[in-house]
C-alpha cells in the first residue's frame, strides 16, 4: 500500500518551455502533497505544501509564479515549471500523506522523482 | 533548519547489523521520529517511525532512548542493496512538513 506515482521520470526540454510533472497517490487519498527539489549530492529541499482544493503554500525563496502547483483532487497534484531555464534543471520529487484525525502521524510516501534537464 | 543530526557516512560489512544513530535533542513530547532511505536517483523510501516505544517491522528496528533525544535505526543483516543515504526526520512543529538534514551515507561492503 501507500504507493505514489510520479510522471514523467525524466524530461529534457529546450529553454523557455513549460514542463508539467504529475504526482498521483494510487491507493490512498492524499489530503496533503509536498514538492521537493534535490541537487546532485545534496539533500531534499522542500519547495511547497499542497492541500487538496486550496492554494499551495510555498517555502521562503521559492517563486510561486515559476513553480505552479495544482492539487485539484485527492489523488493528483501537479507541478508546472514555467518558462524553464537551465538553472531549473534538477531532480523534483513529490510526496503524499493521507487522512486526518487518528492518522495524523502517518508518514509521507514519496514518488520516484522527475529528472528535469533544460538545454 | 533540520531538527536532527546524523553522522555523514558509515560502512558496514555485509551480513552484519548496521546501527545508524540520530540525534534529535529538541524533539517535543508528541513528535514522532521518521526514518527513510534514498537509493541513488530514486525517491526516499519509508522505513519506520516511532514515538517512544521501540518499533520493529520487516525492514528494520527503531530504538528510541527514554529521554527521546536520540534514536538508532538497526538493519539486522545488512545486504549490498541496503547501500543508501538514510534520513532521520522530525516534522516541523505543528505542521506535516519534513525538513531533510544531510543524512548518513551507508555503504555495505562485500
Describe how the helices and strands are arranged.
The complex is a heterodimer of chains A (119) and B (110).
Chain A: E1 4-7, E2 10-13, E3 19-25, E4 30-38, E5 44-51, E6 57-58, E7 67-73, E8 76-81, E9 90-98, E10 109-110, E11 114-118
Parallel strand pairs in A: 2-11
Antiparallel strand pairs in A: 1-3, 3-8, 4-5, 4-9, 5-6, 7-8, 9-10, 9-11
Chain B: E1 9-13, E2 18-23, E3 33-38, E4 45-50, E5 55-56, E6 61-64, E7 70-75, E8 84-90, E9 104-109
Parallel strand pairs in B: 1-9
Antiparallel strand pairs in B: 2-7, 3-4, 3-8, 5-6, 6-7, 8-9
Helix content of chain A: under 10%
Enumerate the strands of the largest sheet of chain B in spatial order, edge to edge or round the barrel.
1-9-8-3-4
Number of strands of chain A: 11
Largest interface, Cβ cutoff 8 Å: A-B, 25 and 21 residues
Shape of chain A: globular
Q: What's the mean pLDDT score of chain A?
A: 92
Oligomer: heterodimer
Give a concise summary.
The complex is a heterodimer of chains A (about 120) and B (about 110). With about 120 residues, chain A is mainly β.
Explain the overall architecture.
- The complex is a heterodimer of chains A (119) and B (110).
- With 119 residues, chain A is mainly beta.
- Chain A contains no helices and eleven strands.
- Chain A has strands spanning 4-7, 10-13, 19-25, 30-38, 44-51, 57-58, 67-73, 76-81, 90-98, 109-110, 114-118.
- The radius of gyration of chain A is 14 Å and the shape is globular.
- In chain B, the strands form two sheets. Chain B has a five-stranded mixed beta sheet, with no helix packed on it. Chain B has a four-stranded antiparallel beta sheet with strand order 2-7-6-5, with no helix packed on it.
- Chain B has 110 residues and is mainly β.
- Chain B has strands at 9-13, 18-23, 33-38, 45-50, 55-56, 61-64, 70-75, 84-90, 104-109.
- The interface between A and B is medium-sized, with 25 and 21 residues.
